[in-house]
Amino acid sequence: MNVFKRMAKQEIEFLYDLERVLIDRKKDLPKGSYSTRLFKKGIDKIAQKLGEEAIETIIASKNKKDSEVIYESADLIYHLMVLLVERNIPLDSVFQELIVRSKK
Ligand SMILES: N=c1c2ncn([C@@H]3O[C@H](COP(=O)(O)OP(=O)(O)OP(=O)(O)O)[C@@H](O)[C@H]3O)c2ncn1[C@@H]1O[C@H](COP(=O)(O)O)[C@@H](O)[C@H]1O
């Protein structure tokens, strides 16, 4: 396995850690947590936030600064993760779908 593949593996691992944190937030609803706020508001608010972050990513992509695209993409991925957890859809299912597509 080359060094980039090893790094990518660590980063994917991080997404699974975030998924576990979000599942806990949804269950425990700790005070002071932004994710708690979203889970308490429910799917409409979560979907709305995902849409906003998608638009912000699109706007950032029109600018020259890569840092803005990276920042907005991170917001987008986080809100997508919250939406998946709200719907009880494991991250694994999304990766499996991508793997199936890669074999076509
Ligand atoms: N990765 C993230 C993450 N990315 C973005 N955000 C939040 O997403 C929000 C996006 O900013 P906006 O201005 O669009 O939203 P806002 O004005 O704060 O909120 P709204 O009133 O619009 O709903 C910010 O408040 C960010 O803090 C995140 N909040 C939490 N996480 C991770 O989620 C985990 C749990 O965090 P908590 O739930 O805060 O404990 C931790 O590992 C965090 O690192």
Structure description:
- The structure is a single chain.
- This protein has a single domain, classed as Helix Hairpins.
- It is 83% helix and 0% strand.
- It is built from five helices and no strands.
- The longest helix has 26 residues, at 3-28.
- The structure holds phosphoribosyl ATP (PRT).
- The site of phosphoribosyl ATP has 10 residues, from helix 1, helix 2 and helix 4.
Question: Can you tag this structure with a few keywords?
Answer:
Helix Hairpins; mainly alpha; binds phosphoribosyl ATP; 104 residues; histidine biosynthesis; HisE; 5 helices; 83% helix
- CATH class equals Mainly Alpha
Helix share bin: over 70%
Question: Over all CA atoms, what is the radius of gyration?
Answer: 15 Å
| Strand percentage | under 5%
Q: What is the average per-residue confidence, as pLDDT, rounded to a whole number?
A: 94
Number of domains: 1
CATH topology: Helix Hairpins
Structural class by SSE content: mainly alpha
What's the story with the biggest beta sheet? Answer: none
The H-level CATH homologous superfamily, spelled out, is MazG-like
Per CATH, which architecture? Orthogonal Bundle
Which overall shape is indicated by the principal axes computed on the Cα atoms? globular
Distance between the termini: 23 Å
- The parts where pLDDT drops under 50 for at least 5 residues are none
